[in-house]
Amino acid sequence: MYLKRLEIQGFKSFANKIEMQFENGIIGVVGPNGSGKSNISDSIRWVLGEQSPKSLRGSKMEDVIFAGTNSRKPLGMAEVSLTLDNTSMLMPIDYGEVTITRRVYRSGESEYYLNKASCRLKDIRELLMDTGIGKEGYSIIGQGKIDEILSSKPEERRLIFEEAAGIIKYKSRRDEAEKK
Ligand code: ATP
Ligand code: MG
């Protein structure tokens, strides 16, 4: 399972639609200060369901929408699509390729899509559970995360190992069943 494609439009500094194709392997993103490198990783975090504007370096969710420049008007919508390779069938879905899309308008609520069909954030969370991908997954290690892991309580650290071991979905099903 790996990132195959990222499409960004109207998100942060990316006013025009851009598309990046990735190969299975190591990818480095290079560029001058302020050119948008971190905005790319923010877009990945966001499409995977990040709800905290602060962790996207903003103060409200609207801040992810292109805010305009001297020569260009602000936009009204941000959209990011992330395509993951699923030929290993790690995600429990019958597609060799999965595209997750998130869209937000200035008016508020986000819309989510799985392979272009409208869905809930919950559906995306369930699909990514135990894959290590996802906003809480260990696949995104931001600045300061290593320190956080090392200084966390044993119970918190255990969650990371549980996700790696692939047992989070069973725990979450048990918790849901206990609630009923
Ligand atoms: P560094 O090397 O310093 O880490 P970087 O390449 O990671 O830089 P980013 O932080 O990704 O750069 O990009 C910062 C740029 O994105 C700034 O110029 C900022 O004005 C712009 N930016 C952030 N949010 C928006 C927005 N909503 N609309 C337009 N531009 C934005
Ligand atoms: Mg940066």
Automatic annotation (TrEMBL):
Localization: Cytoplasm
Residues given in the record as ATP binding sites: P32, N33, G34, S35, G36, K37, S38, N39
Subunit structure comment from the entry: Homodimer.
Functional description taken from the UniProt entry: Required for chromosome condensation and partitioning.
Family: Belongs to the SMC family.
Domain notes: Contains large globular domains required for ATP hydrolysis at each terminus and a third globular domain forming a flexible hinge near the middle of the molecule. These domains are separated by coiled-coil structures.
Protein's recorded name: Chromosome partition protein Smc
Annotated source species: Alkaliphilus pronyensis
Lineage, top ranks: Bacteria, Bacillati, Bacillota, Clostridia, Peptostreptococcales
